[in-house]
Amino acid sequence: MSVHIAAKKGEIAKTVLQPGDPRRARYIAENFLEEVKLVSETRSILYFTGLYKGKEISVGASGMGVPSIGIYSYELFTEFDVDTIIRIGTCGAYTDELKVFDVLNVNNAASESTYAKYAWEIEEEILPPPGHIFSLLNKTAENRSLNLIPTTIHTSDIFYRKSQEIPEIAKKYNCSAVEMEAFALFANAQYLGKNAATLLTVSDVIPTGEFISADQRESALKPMIELALEAAMN
Ligand code: ADE
Known about the structure:
Helix content: 25-40%
Order of helices and strands: EHEEEHEEHEHEHEHEEHH
Strand content: 25-35%
Shape: globular
Largest sheet: 5 strands, mixed, barrel
Bound molecules: adenine
Number of helices: 8
Number of strands: 11
Strand order of the largest sheet: 5-9-8-6-10
Radius of gyration: 16 Å
């Protein structure tokens, strides 16, 4: 048992799908997996393990932000021998060239966060997804004729801010969208020699104010969830 995940050794699969929201983890487990078992509910951060087309997969939440995904992804990699984490989240687009419902595969996450530096002495402020899962997702999307957009994003510690200006780091690296977790996930995977990727569905377009409503979210996220599950089969 680890500090924040109450599952026993062997109860978590080698590949984990990681949404931010525990209720989304439950939705995926109940609607896409068979023979599902709830393996941890510490702090109501739910983890489930089940079968997708016969293959064992786990799905569990990261919570919101760099510290939270930093903890959960580290414990999954180190305490449960997880090989691959696919984050499945939402993001805000900085540009109206992206539309709500677009699905992005993060090819670089830039951040002002000091997480990578102070956790692992990784000095870079922009990190790629470590391992082979990024390209496997691209190939899987191509086979499914899903338009998956490789994108450089900003991992921010801030959701609410005074200025409406695009933050400096996002301008510096030409980030098209913002979320709050990928950079820490990539830092952990890089340090530990594991595989990680981040798929994001655009939930809001910041310059136009367009957004996906709460009741559209479940169906909006379906293509991304199915893509992650299909890639996890390999
Ligand atoms: N996730 C979804 N929309 C976001 C936004 N506008 N900022 C940060 N994270 C987000």
